[in-house]
Structure formats: C-alpha cells, structure tokens
Amino acid sequence: MTVCRPRVITLLTDFGNQDAYVGIMKGVIAGINPFANVVDICHSIPPQDIFSSAYLLYSSYKYFPRKTIHVAVVDPGVGSRRDIVCVETKDYFFLVPDNGLLSYIVQEERPKSIIRLTNSKYFLPSLSSTFHGRDVFAPVAAHLSLGVKPQQLGIKINQLEQLDVPNPVQKKAGRVEGQIIYIDRFGNLITNITKEYLVKGTGGQKPEVRSMKPDAFEKISKEKILSKYDTIETTIGKKRIVGLSKTYTDAKPGEPLVLIGSAGFLEVSINQGNAQKYFKVDKGNKVIIKCNPGTIR
Amino acid sequence: MTVCRPRVITLLTDFGNQDAYVGIMKGVIAGINPFANVVDICHSIPPQDIFSSAYLLYSSYKYFPRKTIHVAVVDPGVGSRRDIVCVETKDYFFLVPDNGLLSYIVQEERPKSIIRLTNSKYFLPSLSSTFHGRDVFAPVAAHLSLGVKPQQLGIKINQLEQLDVPNPVQKKAGRVEGQIIYIDRFGNLITNITKEYLVKGTGGQKPEVRSMKPDAFEKISKEKILSKYDTIETTIGKKRIVGLSKTYTDAKPGEPLVLIGSAGFLEVSINQGNAQKYFKVDKGNKVIIKCNPGTIR
Amino acid sequence: MTVCRPRVITLLTDFGNQDAYVGIMKGVIAGINPFANVVDICHSIPPQDIFSSAYLLYSSYKYFPRKTIHVAVVDPGVGSRRDIVCVETKDYFFLVPDNGLLSYIVQEERPKSIIRLTNSKYFLPSLSSTFHGRDVFAPVAAHLSLGVKPQQLGIKINQLEQLDVPNPVQKKAGRVEGQIIYIDRFGNLITNITKEYLVKGTGGQKPEVRSMKPDAFEKISKEKILSKYDTIETTIGKKRIVGLSKTYTDAKPGEPLVLIGSAGFLEVSINQGNAQKYFKVDKGNKVIIKCNPGTIR
C-alpha cells in the first residue's frame, strides 16, 4: 500500500483574520478531501487590493511542491459576471477570479490551459452571490486535489485578464524609473526593478519580470550586477542611497540601504528600521536608479 | 488497511494571534492525537465578546465535515465556577464554556446530550486556573477525536445557558426593527433579520433563526422574498436604502446596498467600501426594514 | 505497515501575517516532507524583539510532543556572520539564530548538542542573503523531521549566546524587585518572578527560572506560596494590590489582581480588563513584591 502524499492547497485572500471566512473555506475543503494540506499564504491583503495579491502570489507560488493548487480570492467582482478560472501550468494549478491576479506569474509560467468554471457539479449545492470562496473556490480546489481534471470544470478559454503591471522605464541612458509595488511588514520597499532587468535591460527593451525560480537565483549575483554598474545610486523622494548592499546588516542600524530582495526585486530598506516611515512613501511612489553612466557597457 | 480520515477539530477563541496561546493548544492536541486536523475558525474575537463568537460559530459550524469537534474558548469566567460542557448534536460535537456560545446553534441543532466536564482523566495532569484552553479544552477535544464518548467526560446535564439573543421585532405591519449583530472585516453590517423571517415572519410569531444548511439556501431565493415584498426599504441612522440587491456589485462602487449575506442574514454593505465607516454605526445599532405595505399578503 | 506519526515543526517568527513569508516557509517544508505537521506558535512578535520571542518560546515548547522541531526566526542579524544553530535536548530540537532566543529554555533543558549549520546540502540550492527562513530554516527543519541527524548539519560548538535575561532581585528581606517581561493580548503583565522563586528564593540565591513542566505545576500550589508569605503585596507604579488570587474572577470586573499565570510567572491582571492600559506600563517596568516580613521563615 502506498500512502499518497497529501496535496497542498494554498489560500490567499483579503478576508482578514477577524472573521470566520477562511475557516469556513477550510471546513468545506476538509469535507471533500480530508487529506488535503491547506496552507495559508496571506489573508491580510488590503480589501480588494489585486496588485498586492498578484505580487504576493508571484513571490510565493514556486516554493510549493509540484501539483500544488494555489487559490486566490481577492475578488471585488464577486457575484458579478467576472469569470472564475482554473489555470494549469507545467507545475501548478491556479484557481482565481479572472481579474489579473496572475499578471506577474504568466510572465514566467506559460498556461497549459485556462478553464472558465461553469460545471456547478463541483460547487456547493447552493450558491450564494456573496461568498464564492466558500461555495466555488473551496470545493473546486478540493475536487482538483482529488484528481478531477481542469477540463471537467468548465469551458476552455484563450486569454486571461491582465493588470496594467507597472514596468521600470529607462528614461535615458543610466537612468531607470521604477516604482514601489509592495511594502512588507518591516516597511521594506519592494520595487518593480528586477535583478535581471538591471543586468540585461536597456532602454528600448521590454523589461523581463521572470525566471525567479530558486535555481535561477545564483545565476545573477550581486557581483554580476556590479560588474555592469560599478555604482548604483538610488533616489527615493529627495534622498539618495549609494551602492548595492548584500544584506540588511551591511548598513548601520537605522541607516538606509538598497539590495536585491528575496523575491528578486530591488528593495529599499533600513537596517533594523522601517523604510516606509523613514522615507514617508507609499505604493506607487517613484524610485529612480542612476547608474554611473561611464561604466555602462 | 484503511487509513482513517483525520478528524477535524476547530478552534475559535479570543486569544488573538500575538501570543502563543493558540499554538500551545495545538501542541497539546498533537501530543494526544497526532492525526487530528486542527482548523482555526477565528482567534481575533474582541476579548470576551461572547455575542460575536456565537454568531461566528453559527455561521461556520455546518460547513465542516460530520463528526467535527468545534472548540470555542471565549471564556470570561475561566477558573470560576462556570461549567465546561460537551454538547453532541446529530452531526457535531461542541466543547464550550457554558456561557451562551451556542445560543444561535441550538435553535437549529437539537442537542442529543449535554455533558458537564468533570473527569480530570482527560485533562492535562496539572490544571492551571487561568488557561483552561490548554489544560482542559485541548486535551478533551483530542481525546474526543480519538473516539472517547462524551458520556465518559462527565455528568449529564439538561440545560445550557442562553444569551439574550436579540430577535427582530415587527412593530407594526410592514415595519420590522432589527439590529446589527456583527460587523465583518469589510465593514459589512450583519443584522439579526434572517431571510426566513422576511418570508414567513409576521408580527406575532417568534422569528426563526434556523435552517441555514447549505442545501436549504436555494429554497428561499431573493425572488421569493421579492414576490412577497415588492420593495424593501432599509433605514439605518437617517439614511435609507431602497431595494434588495443580489450581490455587492449591484450598486456602484462606493454606493450602499442591502442583500442577504452568506450566512442568511440581511446585510447592509457598500460596494467596494466600508458600511460601518459610511454609516458610522456599531453593533447593537437599529436597522429598520419598511416593506411597501400594499404588497404584503 | 505502520503509519508514522507526523512530526511536528513549530514556527515562531516576527514575519507578521500581512506578507507571504510564513506561507513560503510552509511551502518549502511541504516540498521536502509532505507529512510534517507545521504549527504556528506566533508570527506577530514585534520586529526583531528577541526578548519577547524567548519568553513565548519558553512558555510553549514543552506542550508539544517529544521530537518536535521548534523553529524560531527572529533574526536581526540575517545575512551577517551570526550563526544558525540546531540545539538538541532530551525531548526537543531547536533551530534558531544564535542570538539568545533560547536563554530561558537552556535554564531548564540541558542541550545534548549544539550544531552550527554549515552543510549547505540541506539548504535551498540558491541562498538569498535576506530570507534565511525560506532558504535555511525551513529546509533544514524539514530534513530533521525526516530523520536527518543534527550532526549531519554542521559543526559542533560548545556555547550559545545568552540574552541578559532580567532576574528578580531581593533588595532586602521581604522586598523583591522584578520587572515586566511580557504583555499579552489581554494586557496581562507577566513578570520575571516565578512561582518557584517565591517559594524557595531568598536574598542571596540566584533565582531559578525552571521546572515549569506540566507535571511540576501542582507541586507548588498557591497554598504553598501562601503558607510562606501570608500576605503578598504587589506595587506597580504607585498602585498597590494586596493578596495573591487564584483566578481572574477572584477580583470584581474592572478590578486589579495578582496571580501565578499559566506559564508559572507572577502576573498582574484586571478581571475582564486590560492591566497595561490601567497601570499605563510597558515591558521593562518595575514590579515590587512586598511580603509581610513577619511571616517569612
């Protein structure tokens, strides 16, 4: 007898932790597949903040085992005509409202199939108009984890909605304009400027937001970046930070620094402090990278 | 060989997430039944808020698989003479302090037995006076999940404490006075006026707060309500909302609406906004439903 | 065939619940050991607050089953030269940055071995400088749960970093000066004065912070303390509380009391209220215990 590996189902919602919504979804899943391993990615997304959700899902999905079912319910359109889709890629399944939540991910995971959910056989028998997390997402995820095929869930479609994800822009040689796309608990300012963009990106080219797979991390080291840009100068508001650090403790406690964060994006931080408070900035604010023009090849 | 389904134990407490109390309970459970599937319903109940807890437990319990053990520790009387009880219903077990936490549930789940916990054999060997979650609730729940019978836990009693649950009142024909019993993360105002009450309730009758089982949902649709009350007018503070929506997006972003929420109660919301802030109201505040008198049969 | 007990891995971090950091760690663990039972102890530690973490870990670890792997990532020095260590005691494994997180625990659990992690075979293949929770702690914990021996992880060392844990001080006979080491969600003020210290401690002796094992709890009851100190008077700020209560409800709602809390420390509380707000105090503030000098033997 083989004991099967329990399938992982992840949950990312804006339901918060103060109500019972997340627990209810887990109840529905346990009723259908008692062996599923349900893992919370995050439930404290600001209500209906699709951009932050897209970033968080992107920063986490690839650290889960193959065949994980990633469920994201940040869904301002619940009950309206927006679709719910099951997207299968080489390694993962995604179950999301079709509102752009996968905008970052589809840049590095090519969808093998996109199915619009229509088969109510896999929904709860009675469907509310306000809590599809419970009535649609949870039961469908549980059925997927039992081996139901995406094709059984509905109708194949060809395209996903895309967010207008902000990409870094090279205004002129040696000057890249990015913006803050996420701020974490520690006040670290995560920008849309990727490690790869710093190495390969030039003015005219579309910046790439891809290949953050664990085994790709080492390929582009800080050293590689620095071999191209001897000095990197980051301007945020009226403040300037010179150089690229390897870790938070490269700066003195309370001092600002810039590094490549754990998800592969350029990040502005304060060692043992809070960069959001220090710089008084918010998501969407500009971050400008100036590279010593003489050293750009 | 049959691999048994892991039994589900749910936890609902006011312990918050900033201390280790919930984790400790899970440690105790894992030590007794390593295969139990422990699911958090909510731990962010305002300290000692029995009313909110009763609502949350009611809104969630039935979405869990049969034989789930629901543990609720919102317990201002910890260490005093209040009882801890194990209540068995047709499908579930409840382990709660006897302080009214089951007030909504017993209106739809008839207790088969109520046992007052006295058998310290199932408690931790040394019993503190301040943390019964760890010393009593967790180990007893774990033992129940291993097949211990409620009867082994203590002494049968006949009655449970009841909260003075506020019921809607029909002041005169076509005018129902309810109140806000819960406000969720999104600021949605959940009232004590149920879908069923709107359909069946008349002045003299006791309103029913029951039959929210998933398969009962479709039986009373919005259409049914509307066939009875052509127009429903909701007054909250000095503001009036006309009509009953099906889903949040029936109103424009920022606009108020009234719908039947996912737990079956009349709910006042703002599409993509926060109704609590919009109306500046709190739990306990009145919500008045005026139905077009001409259409009431 | 024997179905193995799933090994428990606990997580205590300062990552908060608003980002995906904790979920990512669980993803990494599930990829290596899909049968591990991951339990959250706490993730809401104030950023980089090692003292609170040391207390929370101490108050919880012993309630988990034998062979549990306790992982604590509160790590202001991430990426710097601080070590990550695996500490094995008679019953448990601890995986922590070597920054004093085990300061309370090593007073009661003698380390059998302390290993400094060096074997990158058990890390993620590419190692970031900023997220060792994901790249080191999670994979190493998962490998330990599969039976890897601490000795395989790195190099044996002899000593752990210690925090300067504040101990109570007996200034003169009958007057003990302690301080608040932790404040929980309810505003309960947990001091560094242990039950044991009250019974055994005298002026010159080093206070003991040990032996809180569940089965040791009953050995030192409130009665035993009172037989020594007939009346205990606690001063906090300018307020005085007379007597030692057994449980919160020994005082009237809104009234202050002093008791031995669930982790074995003297605790100042308000029945159904918040002692931190009531006394306007914070961690580190003094708490003075005056015992009726006539009754001290």
Structure, described:
3 copies of one chain form a homotrimer. Chain A has 297 residues and is an alpha+beta fold. Chain A contains 6 helices and 15 strands. Chain A has helices at 21-32, 50-60, 132-145, 195-200, 222-228, 275-279, and strands at residues 8-13, 37-42, 69-73, 84-88, 93-97, 113-117, 154-157, 169-172, 175-183, 189-194, 232-236, 239-242, 256-260, 265-270, 286-291. In chain A, strands 8, 9, 10, 11, 12, 13, 14 and 15 form an 8-stranded antiparallel sheet that branches. In chain A, strands 2-1-3-5-4-6-7 form a 7-stranded mixed sheet. In chain A, helix 1 (21-32) links the parallel strand 1 and strand 2. In chain A, helix 1 (21-32) runs parallel beside helix 3 (132-145). Chain A is elongated. Chains in contact: A-B, A-C, B-C. The interface between A and B is large, with 35 and 42 residues.
Structural key phrases:
homotrimer, 297 residues, alpha+beta, disordered C terminus
Oligomer: homotrimer
The largest chain-to-chain contact, stated as pair and per-chain residue counts, equals: A-B, 35 and 42 residues
Number of helical elements of chain A: 6
Roughly what fraction of the amino acids of chain A lie in strands?
Answer: 25-35%
Give the CA-based shape of chain A.
Answer: elongated
Q: What does the average pLDDT of chain A come to?
A: 86
N-to-C series of helices and strands of chain A: EHEHEEEEHEEEEHHEEEEHE
What share of the residues of chain A lie within helices?
10-25%
Give the N-terminus to C-terminus distance of chain A in angstroms. 60 Å
Describe the largest sheet of chain A: 8 strands, antiparallel
Q: What structural class results from the helix and strand content of chain A?
A: alpha+beta
Number of strands of chain A: 15
